[in-house]
Write a structure and sequence with these properties.
This protein is an alpha+beta fold. It has 4 helices and 5 strands. The protein has one domain: Alpha-Beta Plaits, CATH 3.30.70. The chain binds iron/sulfur cluster. Iron/sulfur cluster binds next to helix 1 and strand 3.
């Protein structure tokens, strides 16, 4: 099976935290051990503060099972209103990277 890349488009993420809530509802327990949306502030070219939201996949996440078994999208991906969370193969992921520098690789799934 070719590698599958799970990534977040930082430009699309609006920090709604729906992915965290969906993970909690789907799997119970402490969702913050599986997915967490962090915030970081930076100044733009005009000196204005800009907030970026960065989804992070943590060690307890078992997203590999979704990608390998061809199951439905994981809860976090299914509820994301902006489609910030995505799977792609190497070719597709390379194209995304070449077009968009605001991408965070969350996990490589073999
Ligand atoms: S990844 Fe999607 S669901 Fe999660 S905080 Fe960002 S926009 Fe909301």
């Amino acid at each position: 099976m070719p590698n599958v890349f799970f990534y977040a488009d930082i430009h699309r993420c609006v920090g709604c935290h729906a992915c965290e809530v969906a993970c909690q509802q789907e799997h119970g327990g402490d969702a913050r051990k599986r997915i967490k949306v962090e915030e970081s502030e930076a100044l733009d070219s005009r000196g204005r503060v800009r907030v970026n939201f960065i989804p992070l996949i943590l060690e307890d996440c078992f997203i590999e099972s979704y990608a390998k078994d061809g199951e439905d999208s994981p809860a976090c991906m299914a509820v994301c209103p902006t489609r910030a969370l995505q799977f792609n193969d190497l070719g597709g992921f390379s194209r995304v990277l070449s077009d968009n520098k605001n991408v965070s690789l969350l996990r490589v799934i073999r």
